[in-house]
Amino acid sequence: MPLPKAELHLHIEGTLEPELAFALAVRNGVTLPYADTDALREAYRFQDLQSFLDLYYGLMTVLRTEADFEELADAYLARAAAQGVRHAEIFFDPQAHTARGVDIGTVVEGLGRALDRARERHGVTTRLILCFLRDQSAESALETLEAAEPYLHRITGVGLDSAEVGHPPRKFAAVYEAAAALGLRRVAHAGEEGPADYVREALDVLGVERVDHGLRCVEDADLVARLVRDRVPLTLCPLSNVRLRAVDVLEEHPLPRMMDAGLLCTVNSDDPAYFGGYVEDNFAAVRQALGLGEERLRELARNSFEAAFLDDDEALRAA
Ligand code: ES4
Ligand code: ZN
Predict the structure, then answer these.
(1) CATH 3.20.20.140, applies to 5-308
(2) Ligand minimally distant from the alpha carbon of residue 164
């Protein structure tokens, strides 16, 4: 039995499996530049974050209707539940859809239908986190937040994702301030490919309470000391780091050293359809490659509930 856990770093568009992508392509009359699912899987050899993102934004053009987003989230939640996930905080990228003429309401309502059912169907509680694409303009992020206002009852927080280097957190200071004023929680990807300074800036300028990846904090001892002291959670994604070459091989992932240093680490799947596995696959991989013992694995699972946007009593029930 997999350990009960919360998944805190999961892009719903990154759960689009090749089989569903082809089924939706047929349903929506979209032509994909791959002959079949095998040819598509063959293309999953990424050099870095950007080469992944290029394929990822291309494939998600098959997502068009509320039913598509509902089916996508249904499939993820069933898989996650089977891997011990009791609570999932799910990222979505509205700008990747609105840029193609798909309304943000279509996305949120479709995902919402699946999320509403997940509790009884799978025993999984959920939150939605709206991510801004950091390689788009700050104005576009503000417009996205405005477009989301009718749906804020369904949205717990905001995040920041896509191509990191050259798009520092401070670019989004205004939209994060506006999000905070609306009562939204704040997280951001930082220190995946970008430097440790981006992690510090996400804390200081954006006011994030959790850092997505945060891997490169290990290059800055003062930053590590601060993250430990303030118990700032990091949502690490080990298989993603290998596939996108943030680390050379899993055996060299800094996770054990980060835990030894006292960092509040969690293990998550990021884009599981693309990176070789869902969250328990990530747990199994780090157990194998890094020799993490049962106590360390239990610590990771416990950390995931501490780091989740749950009330204390909800966290206890979920664990
Ligand atoms: C992402 Cl792995 C990763 N990094 C940044 N942005 C993303 N969006 C989807 N997956
Ligand atoms: Zn991510």
Answers:
(1) yes
(2) 1
